[in-house]
Amino acid sequence: MRIIVCVKRVPDSESRIAKAKDGLSVDTQGVKFVLNPYDEYAVEEALKLKEAAGDGSVSVITLGGEESKETLRTALAMGVDEAVLLKGQPSVDGLGTAEKLAEAIKGREYDLVLFGKQAIDDDNLQVPAMVAELLGLPCATVVTELQVDGGAVTATREVEGGHEIVEFELPGLIAAQKGLNEPRYPSLKGIMQAKKKPLEEVDAGDAESRLEVVEVMNPPVRAAGQIVGEGADAVPELVRKLRDEAKVI
Amino acid sequence: MTKFEGVDYYNVDSLLSEEERAVRDTVRDWVDENLLPLIARCYVERRFPSELVPQMAELGFFGANMPEKYGCAGLNNVAYGLIMQELERGDSGVRSFASVQASLVMYPILEFGSGEQRDYWLPKLAKAEAVGCYGLTEPDYGSDPGGLTTRAVKDGEEWVITGTKMWITNASIADVAIIWAKTGELDDPESIRGFIVETDREGYVASDQKGKLSLLASDTSEISLQEVRVPAANLLPGSSGLRSPLMCLNQARYGIAWGAVGAAMACYAEALSYAQNRLQFDRAIAGYQIQQIRLVEMLTEITKGQLLALQLGRLKDGGKLRHAQVSMAKRNNVNMACEVAREARRLLGANGILVEYQSMRHMANLESVYTYEGTHDIHGLIVGEDITGLSAVT
Fold first, then answer.
1. Probe site for chain B from A15, A73, A189, A193 (most B CB atoms < 10 A)
2. What is the mean pLDDT of chain B?
3. What are the beta bridge partners of residue A57?
4. A-B interface: how many C-beta pairs under 8 angstroms?
5. Number of helices (H) and strands (E), helices first, in chain B?
6. The sheet that has A199-203: what strands, in order across it?
7. Which residue, A93, B49, B258, B355, is most buried by CB atoms nearer than 10 A?
8. What superfamily does domain B132-234 belong to in CATH?
9. Which residues of B have a catalytic role annotated?
10. What share of chain B in percent tops pLDDT 70?
11. Per-domain residue ranges for chain B?
12. Domains in chain A and their CATH numbers?
């Protein structure tokens, strides 16, 4: 089983994000970057599939700058066999990035392509489906359970109010949702071995952006809570505010 | 579970390599997700969380700075120190377990052991298939270990060991003990040698130290050795005189200098968050001068401790470390952590005495850390002798 996992370097969800001076991007000063959390599920699933099969290989691919090597090495430390850095910048919209990834994947041998369902920085949720389309692969997104039996794949998808089970034949593409598995920690030995594993660099060039960012804004400051009164006497006023002002009832 | 964001006022992170940060992050995440959710309960129940040991071994926490051929990660000493920092951010007892396993059991076997001893024991200890303990201190010989009275007498192809060891971390749960005994006269510290003693040998009895008010999530025991017979091959052939056990302690003290910083970071982070959220007189107590100064003092001392530990590690990695430098760092950083924990507990007011908060647990633990592996005062005298050339004790 040959598996390719596409990953992205994103700010840690605990980081405090501030607007950059240009007003069009995020200030990366002092921000900690990590492997996109949804991609961790994808990497873990790939490693589990390889371990269950008893042979095969897992590669990770990313589109990004020199700093993305650290992200690739996190995946290598988790147990991935090899990594590919497509040197170039991802696009604002998903399509440009998807084109670069699809182009790189096309020339490689694979049975399954795995993604996290979304990157937590731009939250586009576009790239996995676009790559599947560009490669002509069957695609299941938001996957919480996966079974691979020979060439037959059964994937459980999270849908509004329930689950959907889909089947397809390999080769195919899966986008992982939280709950698919419990990602392993990079072990200390894994961290030491990561730097000895192959890390290929390809000059991919920047992805074409069909969208232009015109402004980045902070979320609105949350207003302070109000105390409308105490005890049963306060209920009418509370109901009125919930209905007329908050419009939630 | 909330993720620990770190305490790094001087961007000390930028002085670490990518690998060192990756190691730190693995241990940090593991502590947040596995140790912190259960440590308060373990502390109250006075039990070591032994269920965590297999995971710690799997991730490579034991003897991480030892060679890969023994199943270890082969990390540098800064990365090793960061592991100790993060473990002690969780609890001093858990860091103590790791320190004993690596610095006091694996290290003497690596340094003084035969090829067979290393090949047999080190992979087992790294995987925690065997847990170790270290018997040097005795009821009457703590700061003065050269006076120890445990004797090892050769009888044919065996050594017969008799004596009592006290304050031994892990002794009741250990599979193997490194026991230091005199092979010659009691007034001859040069006759001290190290022995590998399997704890299922007849005459080895470990009994739990009752009545502790510190390190409650850690096993501390007394060992009684009544004519325990071990094969001649259990002697650590490279051990020789008091210097050998002191070399082991120096390894452990190195880890403690880092670990104490972790405990202090936990207390500071808890105090800062509490101060920002606790309202008195209608505003957050973080806005009052007295709490601000308290927090600033804590953070300043932590920052100094971080830099001290880091440079200590760089000296060790460069092979230029002197033992008195380790003493200075152990002494300073543990004392600093004691003060930070106490101030954090006070800032937390009445809530600070509860086990739901970490500071008082750390405060109580750190009193042991202040005392063990060379007391605060003894480390002062080690540095004192180093700079004056005059020993204050002999």
1. A189
2. 97
3. A2
4. 45
5. 12, 9
6. A162-169, A152-159, A139-149, A172-176, A112-116, A2-6, A57-64, A82-87, A199-203
7. B258
8. Butyryl-CoA Dehydrogenase, subunit A, domain 2 (2.40.110.10)
9. 373
10. 100
11. 5-126, 132-234, 243-388
12. 2-203 (3.40.50.620)
Q: How confident is the model at residue A169 (pLDDT cuts 50, 70, 90)?
A: very high
Tokens of A234: 């306060």
DSSP output for A177-221:
-TTS--PPPPPHHHHHHHTTS-EEEEE--PPPPSS------PPPP
Helix (H/G/I), strand (E/B), else coil: B244: helix
User: Can you read off the two tokens belonging to residue B1?
Assistant: 């579970």
Nearest CA to A188 out of B326, B74, B33, B34 is that of: B74
Chain centre distance of CA B212: 17
The answer to whether residue A67 neighbours chain B at the CB level (below 8 Å) is: no
How many CB atoms are closer than 10 A to CB B68? 12
C-beta separation of A180 from A191 below 8 A: no
Q: What's the CATH architecture for B243-388? A: Up-down Bundle (1.20)
Residue A222, CB-side half-sphere exposure with 13 Å CA sphere: 3
Does the fold of domain B132-234 match that of domain B5-126? Answer: no
**B60 interfacial to chain A (CB closer than 8 Å):** yes
B60 to A77: CB separation less than 8 angstroms, yes or no: no
Whether ipTM exceeds 0.95: no
| Nearest residue, CB atoms, A191 vs list B3, B26, B72 | B26
Q: Which residue has the tokens 């698919």?
A: A180
- C-alpha Rg value of chain A to the nearest Å: 22
Tokens of B284: 């957050």
Spatial distance between the Cα atoms of B103 and B135, rounded to a whole number of angstroms: 13
Q: In whole angstroms, what is the distance from residue B100 CA to residue B105 CA? A: 6
Per-window interface: A 169-198 vs B, CB < 8 A = 185-189, 191-192, 194-195
Answer whether residue B393 shows pLDDT above 70.
yes
Helix axis angle, A127-135 relative to A94-106, nearest 10°? 40
Name chain A contacts of B18, Cβ cutoff 8 Å.
Answer: 70, 73
Please check the confidence at residue B23 and state whether its pLDDT lies above 70: yes
B75 touches A: beta carbon within 8 Å:
yes
Total residue length of chain B: 394
Contact check, Cβ <8 Å, B18/A185: no
Tokens 């200590």 — which residue? B312
- Over 60: is that where the pLDDT of A173 sits? yes
Residue B123 burial by Cβ neighbours in a 10 Å radius (0-12, 13-18, 19+) = middle
Quick check: helix, strand or coil at residue B238?
A: coil
B18 touches chain A (CB under 8 A): yes
Beta bridge partners of B220: B169
List helix spans (H) across chain B. Answer: 18-30, 36-45, 53-59, 77-90, 92-99, 107-112, 115-126, 243-277, 289-317, 323-347, 359-371, 376-388
What is the rounded average pLDDT of the residues B145-159?
97
The CATH classification of domain B5-126, taken from the options 3.40.30.10, 2.40.50.200, 1.10.540.10, 2.40.50.140: 1.10.540.10
> What 3-state DSSP class applies to B282?
coil
